[in-house]
Design goal:
Elements (H helix, E strand, L loop, with lengths): L11 H11 L2 E5 L4 E3 L7 E7 L2 E6 L5 E7 L5 E2 L14 E4 L3 E7 H4 L3 H4 L1 H25 L4 H12 L5 E3 L4 H8 L3 H13 L3 E3 L3 E4 L2 H5 L2
Antiparallel strand pairs: 1-8, 2-7, 3-6, 3-8, 4-5, 4-7, 9-11, 10-11
Amino acid sequence: MIDSVLFKDFTENEIDKFIEYSDAKIIEYNIGHYIFNQGENPKYLYILLKGAVQVEKIDLDGRRYMVNMFEKSGTIFGEVYLYIDSKEYDYSCVAIKDSKILEIPKEYASSGELEKNPKLLKNMLSILSSKAYFLNQKLLIQSSATLKQKIAKFLLQELEGKNKVELRYNRETLANYIGTTRPSLSRELSNMEEEGYIIVEKSSIKLMDIEGLKYI
């Protein structure tokens, strides 16, 4: 059974009927293969079943910037473009692990069929609301005046439990996410560690002064 917010409160039989009726297909992508490319016309609504994908943007100088990363099974991506007429992808999406993806044709997803099903409509609105919240949180980070403020806001947003943030990104990806370079990120993390705000570990960061981070 597909575990996705889109199919919340659906029975397995209802999901099977949806996949059959919508002509959706499960496609496997090897690491490094692109699901879609910047500038292409949208064709599908995507649901990640296994693996991980990264959404990235290439600027005019050919540099790549990580916009988002999805690794949780059931995550939906590419949904916004289904409701924008004649809109090309602003980003590319690449598999960063061997991945399995359910692809629902745009013709079905944007035909009004989703709206005819109250459960599908409710779930899609929930998804779009969550994405809007995520983008707002990212904007709060990237609009900060200094790199230290960006890092502090990111850590506070990601905080789970008492005082530790488990890093979902490597240094390069994290630097792209908050809008800086890897050397600058590493240098500022070292500075913040020396100042007693954090302790940087291999795959996590301990927050030693949460109140102090709030007022950076």
